[in-house]
Amino acid sequence: MRRALFPVLALVLFAAAPFGRNATAAPCCTQGYADLLDHVLPAVVSLSVVKVTGTQPADGQLTARRQRFFGSGFVIDPSGVIVTNRHVIQDAVEITAIFHDNTQARARLLGAANVADLAVLKVDTGRPLPALDLADSSGARIGDPVLAIGNPYGLGMSVSAGIISGLNRNLNQTPFDDDIQTDAAINPGNSGGPLVTVGGQVVGVNTALYTQNGGGYIGIGYAIPANDADFIVRHLLDPKLPQPGWIGVTAQDVSPEVAKGFGVPRPGGAIVTAIDENGPARDAGLRPGDVILAVGGSRLSDTRAMVRTIALMDIGSTTDLTIWRDHKEQTVQITPVEWPNMGSPVEAAMAPAAMAAMAPAPDPDLKLAAITDAVRQQFGIPAGVVGVLVEAASENADLGEQGLRPGEVIVNVNGVPVGRPDQVEHLIGTARSAQQTYLPFLVSGKDGLRWVSYYTGIKERG
């Protein structure tokens, strides 16, 4: 759409620019967000997550395999506490945090929420880490400028700019949904990264994107508000904190049509659809069809506002519910109890042990071959390329982010030129004897030369 304007703009810029340089020349770029990102980026991490996934073929035999996925997160405490999305680490067997300076650390899961798409990780680096502060997201306004930071498609740390384009969005994922909508680019891999204000604080945790036909960014992304994240994360980190309040009702929003059907003067509030047999709502006499208009005198805009209001109440404290029943307002008293199963055990979020056992560990072995004239012709290997052919690589092989592909040529291993398969095998054996986890391969392929970190099968320490 904009491409047609580019030639004209380019000509204008070219005509205005002097040849050469002089002492009074202006900088090539405006400052923009560069100073802000110098502070923010060191606290944002890319997450490389190995998960176990299962399939059920037609013969009914369950199979499992390991796959690598990418996500994002950010440090909230210098001790190494990291916030991300639960879906980023769900079914993981290994989580690695990659920092902006490319240092890496193995991460362990501290907790995962059931009522929100949030999880907390911990890395131990032996040094204090840069950390980000959470903003008071209740002050967020449509039009506020924001930056979305993360690792889209596993390409590496990326930043996109936009504004808050909507508030209180309901994705129907959790009872708390009041997501921030933004037009800053959020793509697969951005999940768990921070949505940052121009003041450098986290106003939201990037969690989802709206797309069509399975595509990527179309200008609508969502983030969990920082206030919600703060509440959930504090409870995940300290199980001794009072849990959120719960009354045991299922409800839906009161639309204009529902309001007319029940004679409610105006839309708003939450109409009860079901009562938990073991919840306080049953003891208080609530029943399906009751419309909860207010909690403790605070009028409710929708069902999610009711859930959040009750969640923040003191456990065991009695409060008034204003309800609409039999075409009139009535008041009932209710005493919230602790929300059942707010968080889940760590083992419930990680890959089940049985599935992990079924999925073979990354296979370090390769099928290598010498390069012959027939091989050169088959794979289109240029005459000047000398090395060892990758004939096959296990589909479970963990060979770095780019991986090895059949038809490529290993030309150098850890700085040593190679020309025969036995040379590569000897160098791999030497690395294993030295307890070396990764071995660098220089590989020639259709995209030119690149380095690949080959996993030797030796478990990484730490």
Based on CA atoms alone, the radius of gyration comes out at 28 Å
Amount of helix: 10-25%
In CATH, what is the class of the largest domain? Mainly Beta
Supply the helix-strand structural class: alpha+beta
Look up the CATH topology of the largest domain.
Answer: Thrombin, subunit H
Number of helices: 11
What share of the residues does DSSP label as strand, in percent? 35-45%
Side by side, the strands of the main sheet go 1-2-3-6-5-4
Regions with little confidence, pLDDT below 50 for 5+ residues: 1-25, 395-401
Overall domain count? 4
Q: What's the end-to-end separation, in Å?
A: 50 Å
How would you describe the shape? elongated
Gist?
This protein has 462 residues and is α+β, with helices and mostly antiparallel strands. It has helices spanning 6-16, 34-40, 86-89, 226-237, 256-262, 280-283, 303-311, 346-349, 353-358, 373-379, 421-433, and strands at residues 44-55, 63-77, 81-84, 92-98, 104-113, 119-123, 145-150, 158-169, 179-182, 194-197, 202-209, 221-225, 245-246, 249-253, 270-275, 291-295, 298-299, 319-325, 328-334, 337-338, 343-344, 366-369, 388-393, 409-413, 416-417, 438-445, 448-455.
